[in-house]
Amino acid sequence: MAKRKKESLESSKNKLLFVMILFAILWTSLLGRAAWLQLYKGADLSRLALRQHLAAELERGERGSIFDRNGNLLATSVEASSLYIRPVKVTDVEGTAAKLSNILGISRSKLRKDLSKKANFIWIKRQLDDRTANKIKEADLPGVYLTTEFVRLYPNKHLAGQLLGFAGIDGKGLEGIEKEFNERLAGRKAQFVVQRDASGRRLYLDAMGHEVDVRGKDVHLTIDSHLQSIAENALVDAIKKFEAKWGAAVIVEVATGDVLALANCPRFNPNIFRTSSPKIWRDRAALDVIEPGSTMKPFLVAAALESGVVTPEKLFDCENGRWKLNGKYINDTHKCGWLPVHKIIRYSSNIGAAKIGLELGVQNYHKYLTDLGFGSKTGLPIPGDRVGAIRPAAEWNEIDLAAASFGQGIGVTALQMAKAYLCIANKGVSKPLRLVKLPKSKDEETPKRIFSEKVAEKVLSMMREVVQEDGTGTNARINGITVAGKTGTAQKAGKGGYGDNYMGSFVGMVPGFNPEYIVLVWIDEPELNHYGSKVAAPAVKTIMTEALAYYGKLPEKQNSTPIMEANVEAYSEMPKKAVKLNSTMSEPSSDIVPDVTGMPIRRAVEIMVKKGFIPKLKGQGMTIIKQVPPAGDKWPEEKNAEIVLWLS
């Protein structure tokens, strides 16, 4: 029994010794392996690890987006796969060429040639559709690779196409805002250390190991997408109706100088720029220099008033529509005799404007034109911003001065014209237009007074006559709203002189008192009618009406039936005892006469009746254009005092 126990104990000791020796051998092997890896292979393995987790890759970040003033997307980028090859890694040239030819529709011979080159990188096809990219993946061809690029997308298609421009296949801006802000919008090239996490996701790091953002920065415009659409649609209708060559429209907010719309027609879809011509993608509203015609006359009159050369009532002989100056004839559309200055604007007399210009003089007129921004770039971030065409004053003769007085012999852009009218609307102070909200401009033009507030208001009053009275702009009238404006019909210069082609234009400001918006429309070479009053004024009316409706500033729809003179007289002769204040109406608390000009007649009369007065109405129409007593005076103490409202 004792012997058996002794043998069992010896066996256990042997087993324990065997296990200990086994573990010793194992740990010795592991320590030896670790020492060999760390001391002998450590440097090589470290390099292999870095190749797995850290690499220097060439990547381009996503291009920044372009937004309108309300944050609506105008241009963005979407991912797409592009195909390239590394010929040195291709194992089967003939088989690879055959498969790629079937998938891509590229000739086998061309692919075979590329695959046979001793090169490390060759593009085969950029920006594939998803179906084709999936077929390439499934083919799993050695030496054939897919990489991710970004394709520029314009979700609103043609909306503001010429303004936005487009970017090429390499993501570089080639036209418009895309070109002007390419440095800001372009995604950065990721020539950085790229670290991959455990899931294989890439983290972009700079040379110091800090994470970086390779995406381009965004640009925010002052454009309002809805107003841009309104302007473009109005241009399309006008060009189609009058069979014109092209058209341009600009909408400006007076308070800020923001360009709310910069429209061109024919329209351009930057998504398919390769199928369009430079003539189509040209931003004519910003770049084309034209002779403006009679839309220059308000600036002439403002300069003459400011210089003390004329007054609104000074008379000029308009020669019954035809006048010879130094052997050259100047003609008017309307045959007029003696006209005061304000009617020269109302009826757009070239002869009257020429005579005002001759009294003003070359130096004075030229100075005011340059002060208004003509002959200089607008400063807006638009590639190819033009200076226009105004020769030095020393080169002008008497005929040049007369022609420039009614907008011929000088060249301006639509944006220059809009900026000049902004000065009139802004009470005589010139200030810059603005097209981009972000990034903010570093060198913004300082506002500068060109005309006194009194002169600006006189010119604005004349422009109201153009629309509200029997002037040339009556087609721009809006029921219930006072509109100021000026027509232009410029004969276009051709070889050897002026030909039979015209540029019809109209500039409108709404409301006519203290304007909030400026709308300019140019219609080039209309066939069926060439007068600005016929081809451009209705388009401006459409744009202004829809813009006011969009902003909720359009008055309630008025009865289109005109107020007859008999009804006006009957109303005026009502006995005052028959007029009683409605008990539900509260008595106006102010002792000051309110400004009712520009109001619908119904609203203006209601205000007067609330105060206990029956106004006398003069003229025919639906809108108040003048009042006595003027706004700001105290209400008359006598209840039978005369209150007069003039209608248009």
Automatic annotation (TrEMBL):
Record's GO cellular component terms: plasma membrane
Protein name: Cell division protein FtsI (Penicillin-binding protein 3)
Source organism superkingdom: Bacteria
The keyword Protease is assigned to this record: yes
UniProt keyword terms in alphabetical order: Carboxypeptidase, Cell cycle, Cell division, Hydrolase, Membrane, Protease
GO molecular function annotations of the record: carboxypeptidase activity; penicillin binding
Gene Ontology process terms (BP): cell division; cell wall organization
Compartments where found: Membrane
Transmembrane segments: none
PASTA domain mapped to chain residues: 587-648
Organism listed in the record: Desulfovibrio gilichinskyi
